[in-house]
From TrEMBL:
It is an enzyme of class 2 (transferase). It catalyses: L-lysyl-tRNA(Lys) + a 1,2-diacyl-sn-glycero-3-phospho-(1'-sn-glycerol) = a 1,2-diacyl-sn-glycero-3-phospho-1'-(3'-O-L-lysyl)-sn-glycerol + tRNA(Lys). InterPro entries: L-PG_synthase/AglD. One of its GO terms (biological process) is response to antibiotic. It is a multi-pass membrane protein. Its EC number is 2.3.2.3. Keywords: Antibiotic resistance, Cell membrane, Lipid metabolism, Membrane, Transferase, Transmembrane, Transmembrane helix. Pfam families: LPG_synthase_TM. This is Phosphatidylglycerol lysyltransferase. The lineage of its organism: Bacteria, Bacillati, Bacillota, Bacilli, Lactobacillales. The keyword Cell membrane applies. It comes from Pediococcus claussenii (strain ATCC BAA-344 / DSM 14800 / JCM 18046 / KCTC 3811 / LMG 21948 / P06). The chain crosses the membrane at residues 7-24, 36-57, 124-146, 152-177, 228-255, 261-284, 305-330.
Amino acid sequence: MSRRNKLVLALMILIGALIFGISLKNENLGSVWHDLIHLNMWWIAVALGCMFLYFGLEGIITKMLVESNGNKLSWRDSFRIPLIEQLFNGITPFSSGGQPAQLVALMQSGIEGGRASSVLLMKFVVFQSMVVINFIISLIVGFGYLEEKIRFLSWFVLFGFLIHLTVIVGLLMVMYWHDFTKRLIDIAFVPLRWFVKSEKYTEWRSTLNEKVDTFYEESLRMKAQWKLILEISIITFFQLLFYYLVPYFILLALGKTGVNIVMITCLHVLIFMVISLFPIPGGAGGAEYGFSVLFSQFVGNSGKLVLAMLIWRLLTYYLGMFAGMVAMVVRPNKLNRKAD
């Protein structure tokens, strides 16, 4: 990690501690402590297991994609790479650092740069597609509740969905209407001539065209490996499902019985969309607020709500970052040989 990344990591931990402190400021600490020591640790273990499955299934996906064309990746590195992604997603705005960090980690494991980029591109397309599909399902189930209880937050959710949907539509256009998409890009770039120097304009246009061509070439590989993509899509669906189930098990740990598992899961999907809108790494502040607002109807007691939010944030955000810090010091198992 660079010095800048270490500083950002320390800052995010500090911000998290500050948010936790503010959340607890107006609560009866004795009551919160009582709820904490009476947690059902079996359900907390289940929630923790869901997060390990979330990380583990991504490791399996990474290994499947790397070895689909004959490369070899050890199981240790397969699980190391998603944890590194979690760390850099957590310390960069809009989770933008996860992809470059994975690329470096794959190359450290002996995977050629072009092949590593192809793997990450295929994984990104599948992941975004599953996010959009899960969100559409959740929107059908939970948007009525969201609009009724907290209408102002529904606009943030819809905006987050539009961002993810736009990404998927753009990728599909490159895959199936390559020439048409490039013409649209040329038209969209025309106004930039008025605001940037010609050298910068030419550089940006050339870089974007190169990336579009690269993705189109990789999309041909994806369409040829449709069975692999289908398998990975199914695994990714369940990977996300385990992540979305975490708040449900936290509520059970707090003694909240009779809660609707489908509604809780769908509301967590909606929170995921809200987090993606905040430019602060990890959606700090927005994530905690969104959780508190959406789940207040199910918890009731404000002290238990704060405790639920703290546990949720520790499991879904800080756990990945701390595990990523450990993964960073693990030496890659560089295997320069073909898979069996």
